[in-house]
Amino acid sequence: MDPLAEIAKMTKQMEKEQGLNGGTNFAVSEAEIDDLLKDIYSEIGKPVPKKGEPAQAIVQKPDPAAEAMSLAVGKDKFLEGQKLAQLAVNADKELSFGTAAVNYDKALECFAAALNNGFPRAAEKRTAICSTMLNYLDRLQQLIIEFADPSLGLKESTETVPARKELNKNRRDIMTAMAKVNFQALSRGVDIRKRAKIAEDKGVVFVAYVLYAESLDCFMTYMSLCKDKEKNERLMSIVMETLETAETLKKKI
Predict the structure, then answer these.
(1) What is the pTM of this model?
(2) Phi/psi at 96 (nearest 5 deg)?
(3) What's the CA gap between 231 and 186, in Å, rounded?
(4) Helices (H), the chain
(5) Cis before 54? omega within 30
(6) Residue 77: which residues within 8 A CB-CB, separation 6 or more?
(7) Mean pLDDT along residues 89-112
Protein backbone atom coordinates (compact mmCIF):
# COMPACT_ATOMS: atom_id res chain seq x y z
CA MET A 1 0.00 0.00 0.00
CA ASP A 2 1.13 3.56 -0.71
CA PRO A 3 2.79 4.99 2.47
CA LEU A 4 0.62 8.10 2.45
CA ALA A 5 -2.54 6.06 1.99
CA GLU A 6 -1.45 3.82 4.85
CA ILE A 7 -0.95 6.70 7.26
CA ALA A 8 -4.31 8.14 6.24
CA LYS A 9 -5.84 4.79 7.15
CA MET A 10 -4.00 4.81 10.50
CA THR A 11 -5.22 8.32 11.21
CA LYS A 12 -8.86 7.36 10.62
CA GLN A 13 -8.38 4.33 12.86
CA MET A 14 -6.90 6.47 15.62
CA GLU A 15 -9.59 9.11 15.30
CA LYS A 16 -12.26 6.44 15.72
CA GLU A 17 -10.59 4.73 18.68
CA GLN A 18 -9.44 7.87 20.52
CA GLY A 19 -12.45 10.01 19.72
CA LEU A 20 -10.39 12.45 17.68
CA ASN A 21 -11.40 14.23 14.51
CA GLY A 22 -8.51 15.54 12.49
CA GLY A 23 -6.86 17.09 15.52
CA THR A 24 -8.42 19.41 18.05
CA ASN A 25 -9.92 22.53 16.53
CA PHE A 26 -7.91 25.40 17.92
CA ALA A 27 -9.47 28.18 15.87
CA VAL A 28 -9.28 31.34 17.98
CA SER A 29 -10.60 34.73 16.98
CA GLU A 30 -8.59 37.95 17.15
CA ALA A 31 -10.95 39.13 19.88
CA GLU A 32 -10.07 36.09 22.00
CA ILE A 33 -6.36 36.72 21.50
CA ASP A 34 -6.88 40.35 22.50
CA ASP A 35 -8.76 39.20 25.61
CA LEU A 36 -5.85 36.98 26.57
CA LEU A 37 -3.43 39.85 26.09
CA LYS A 38 -5.59 42.04 28.30
CA ASP A 39 -5.65 39.36 30.99
CA ILE A 40 -1.88 38.92 30.88
CA TYR A 41 -1.10 42.62 30.96
CA SER A 42 -3.62 43.06 33.75
CA GLU A 43 -1.77 40.39 35.75
CA ILE A 44 1.55 42.20 35.36
CA GLY A 45 0.00 45.64 35.80
CA LYS A 46 0.85 47.08 32.40
CA PRO A 47 -1.26 48.56 29.57
CA VAL A 48 -1.80 46.52 26.44
CA PRO A 49 0.33 47.85 23.53
CA LYS A 50 -1.31 48.65 20.23
CA LYS A 51 -1.61 45.86 17.71
CA GLY A 52 1.00 45.49 14.99
CA GLU A 53 0.50 44.32 11.45
CA PRO A 54 -0.64 40.69 10.86
CA ALA A 55 2.18 38.19 11.28
CA GLN A 56 3.64 36.41 8.29
CA ALA A 57 5.40 33.08 8.33
CA ILE A 58 8.90 32.77 6.93
CA VAL A 59 8.85 30.13 4.22
CA GLN A 60 12.20 29.03 2.87
CA LYS A 61 12.35 27.39 -0.54
CA PRO A 62 14.68 24.40 -0.89
CA ASP A 63 17.80 24.58 -3.02
CA PRO A 64 16.83 23.02 -6.39
CA ALA A 65 20.23 21.30 -6.66
CA ALA A 66 19.70 19.48 -3.34
CA GLU A 67 15.97 18.84 -3.74
CA ALA A 68 16.26 15.21 -4.90
CA MET A 69 18.54 14.26 -2.01
CA SER A 70 16.39 16.14 0.47
CA LEU A 71 13.24 14.40 -0.75
CA ALA A 72 14.93 11.00 -0.41
CA VAL A 73 15.91 11.78 3.19
CA GLY A 74 12.41 13.06 3.84
CA LYS A 75 10.79 9.93 2.48
CA ASP A 76 13.01 7.72 4.63
CA LYS A 77 12.08 9.75 7.71
CA PHE A 78 8.41 9.56 6.81
CA LEU A 79 8.54 5.77 6.45
CA GLU A 80 10.37 5.51 9.78
CA GLY A 81 7.73 7.73 11.39
CA GLN A 82 4.98 5.61 9.87
CA LYS A 83 6.40 2.46 11.49
CA LEU A 84 6.80 4.21 14.86
CA ALA A 85 3.25 5.58 14.67
CA GLN A 86 1.90 2.09 14.04
CA LEU A 87 3.85 0.80 17.06
CA ALA A 88 2.41 3.65 19.13
CA VAL A 89 -1.17 3.00 18.07
CA ASN A 90 -0.80 -0.74 18.70
CA ALA A 91 0.73 -0.14 22.14
CA ASP A 92 -2.06 2.30 22.95
CA LYS A 93 -4.65 -0.37 22.12
CA GLU A 94 -2.82 -2.83 24.35
CA LEU A 95 -2.76 -0.27 27.19
CA SER A 96 1.05 -0.13 27.09
CA PHE A 97 0.97 3.61 27.57
CA GLY A 98 4.68 4.11 28.19
CA THR A 99 5.60 2.43 24.90
CA ALA A 100 2.84 4.35 23.14
CA ALA A 101 4.04 7.71 24.48
CA VAL A 102 7.65 7.13 23.49
CA ASN A 103 6.72 6.01 19.98
CA TYR A 104 4.26 8.87 19.43
CA ASP A 105 7.06 11.24 20.39
CA LYS A 106 9.59 9.58 18.06
CA ALA A 107 7.06 9.40 15.22
CA LEU A 108 6.42 13.13 15.54
CA GLU A 109 10.15 13.82 15.27
CA CYS A 110 10.38 11.70 12.12
CA PHE A 111 7.37 13.33 10.47
CA ALA A 112 8.78 16.78 11.28
CA ALA A 113 12.08 15.78 9.66
CA ALA A 114 10.18 14.57 6.60
CA LEU A 115 8.34 17.89 6.28
CA ASN A 116 11.57 19.84 6.74
CA ASN A 117 13.11 17.88 3.90
CA GLY A 118 10.22 18.66 1.57
CA PHE A 119 8.43 15.32 1.72
CA PRO A 120 5.77 14.96 0.54
CA ARG A 121 5.75 17.69 -2.09
CA ALA A 122 1.98 18.02 -2.57
CA ALA A 123 0.47 20.68 -0.30
CA GLU A 124 -2.66 18.67 0.46
CA LYS A 125 -0.58 15.67 1.58
CA ARG A 126 1.60 17.87 3.81
CA THR A 127 -1.58 19.27 5.33
CA ALA A 128 -2.87 15.74 5.94
CA ILE A 129 0.35 14.79 7.73
CA CYS A 130 0.07 17.87 9.95
CA SER A 131 -3.46 16.85 10.87
CA THR A 132 -2.19 13.41 11.87
CA MET A 133 0.67 14.96 13.83
CA LEU A 134 -1.77 17.15 15.71
CA ASN A 135 -3.68 14.02 16.72
CA TYR A 136 -0.45 12.53 18.05
CA LEU A 137 0.42 15.72 19.93
CA ASP A 138 -3.00 15.66 21.55
CA ARG A 139 -2.72 11.99 22.48
CA LEU A 140 0.80 12.40 23.87
CA GLN A 141 -0.36 15.34 25.97
CA GLN A 142 -3.27 13.24 27.25
CA LEU A 143 -0.99 10.33 28.18
CA ILE A 144 1.38 12.61 30.06
CA ILE A 145 -1.43 14.31 31.96
CA GLU A 146 -3.23 11.09 32.87
CA PHE A 147 -0.32 8.79 33.63
CA ALA A 148 2.91 10.72 34.27
CA ASP A 149 1.82 12.78 37.28
CA PRO A 150 4.50 12.26 39.97
CA SER A 151 1.78 12.43 42.62
CA LEU A 152 0.58 9.04 41.37
CA GLY A 153 3.66 7.45 42.89
CA LEU A 154 7.00 6.24 41.54
CA LYS A 155 5.69 3.01 40.03
CA GLU A 156 2.91 4.56 37.98
CA SER A 157 4.85 7.62 36.84
CA THR A 158 7.88 5.66 35.61
CA GLU A 159 6.39 2.37 34.41
CA THR A 160 3.14 3.65 32.89
CA VAL A 161 4.56 6.68 31.06
CA PRO A 162 8.14 8.01 31.26
CA ALA A 163 8.71 11.21 33.20
CA ARG A 164 7.71 14.25 31.17
CA LYS A 165 11.32 15.44 30.84
CA GLU A 166 12.07 12.30 28.80
CA LEU A 167 9.39 13.28 26.24
CA ASN A 168 8.80 16.34 24.08
CA LYS A 169 12.48 17.33 23.99
CA ASN A 170 12.06 18.43 20.37
CA ARG A 171 8.43 19.58 20.54
CA ARG A 172 9.23 23.13 19.49
CA ASP A 173 11.11 21.87 16.42
CA ILE A 174 8.15 19.62 15.62
CA MET A 175 5.72 22.52 15.94
CA THR A 176 7.93 24.71 13.76
CA ALA A 177 7.88 22.14 10.97
CA MET A 178 4.09 21.96 11.27
CA ALA A 179 3.70 25.75 11.41
CA LYS A 180 5.47 26.09 8.07
CA VAL A 181 2.62 24.05 6.61
CA ASN A 182 -0.61 25.06 8.35
CA PHE A 183 -0.27 24.56 12.13
CA GLN A 184 -1.86 27.47 14.03
CA ALA A 185 0.70 27.71 16.83
CA LEU A 186 -0.58 30.97 18.32
CA SER A 187 -4.21 29.84 18.40
CA ARG A 188 -3.24 26.54 20.03
CA GLY A 189 -1.07 28.38 22.54
CA VAL A 190 -3.93 30.68 23.51
CA ASP A 191 -6.34 27.77 23.90
CA ILE A 192 -3.94 25.63 25.95
CA ARG A 193 -2.99 28.54 28.20
CA LYS A 194 -6.67 29.06 29.00
CA ARG A 195 -6.96 25.41 29.96
CA ALA A 196 -3.79 25.70 32.05
CA LYS A 197 -5.24 28.66 33.95
CA ILE A 198 -8.41 26.68 34.69
CA ALA A 199 -6.34 23.77 36.00
CA GLU A 200 -4.22 26.12 38.09
CA ASP A 201 -7.30 27.75 39.63
CA LYS A 202 -8.63 24.29 40.51
CA GLY A 203 -5.34 23.38 42.18
CA VAL A 204 -4.46 20.66 39.67
CA VAL A 205 -0.79 21.57 39.70
CA PHE A 206 0.73 18.93 37.43
CA VAL A 207 -1.88 19.37 34.70
CA ALA A 208 -1.49 23.15 34.85
CA TYR A 209 2.29 22.83 34.55
CA VAL A 210 2.12 20.47 31.57
CA LEU A 211 -0.32 22.77 29.77
CA TYR A 212 1.60 25.97 30.53
CA ALA A 213 4.77 24.31 29.22
CA GLU A 214 3.10 23.32 25.95
CA SER A 215 1.57 26.78 25.53
CA LEU A 216 5.07 28.24 25.87
CA ASP A 217 6.31 26.03 23.04
CA CYS A 218 3.36 27.19 20.92
CA PHE A 219 4.07 30.87 21.57
CA MET A 220 7.80 30.51 20.93
CA THR A 221 7.12 28.58 17.73
CA TYR A 222 4.87 31.35 16.47
CA MET A 223 7.34 34.07 17.42
CA SER A 224 10.21 32.28 15.67
CA LEU A 225 8.33 32.57 12.37
CA CYS A 226 6.72 35.97 12.91
CA LYS A 227 8.34 38.96 11.20
CA ASP A 228 6.21 41.50 13.08
CA LYS A 229 8.58 42.90 15.71
CA GLU A 230 5.85 44.79 17.57
CA LYS A 231 3.63 41.73 17.83
CA ASN A 232 6.55 39.64 19.04
CA GLU A 233 7.25 42.20 21.75
CA ARG A 234 3.64 42.01 22.91
CA LEU A 235 3.74 38.24 22.92
CA MET A 236 7.02 38.20 24.84
CA SER A 237 5.18 39.60 27.85
CA ILE A 238 2.83 36.61 27.67
CA VAL A 239 5.79 34.26 27.35
CA MET A 240 7.62 35.73 30.36
CA GLU A 241 4.52 35.67 32.56
CA THR A 242 3.66 32.11 31.48
CA LEU A 243 7.24 30.98 32.06
CA GLU A 244 7.26 32.45 35.56
CA THR A 245 3.97 30.72 36.36
CA ALA A 246 5.23 27.39 35.00
CA GLU A 247 8.43 27.63 37.02
CA THR A 248 6.43 28.35 40.20
CA LEU A 249 4.20 25.34 39.57
CA LYS A 250 7.19 23.13 38.78
CA LYS A 251 8.53 23.70 42.29
CA LYS A 252 5.24 22.38 43.72
CA ILE A 253 5.28 19.12 41.77
Answers:
(1) 0.76
(2) -90, 75
(3) 12
(4) 3-18, 30-43, 67-93, 97-116, 123-147, 154-155, 171-179, 185-201, 205-225, 229-252
(5) no
(6) 110, 111, 113, 114, 117, 119
(7) 95
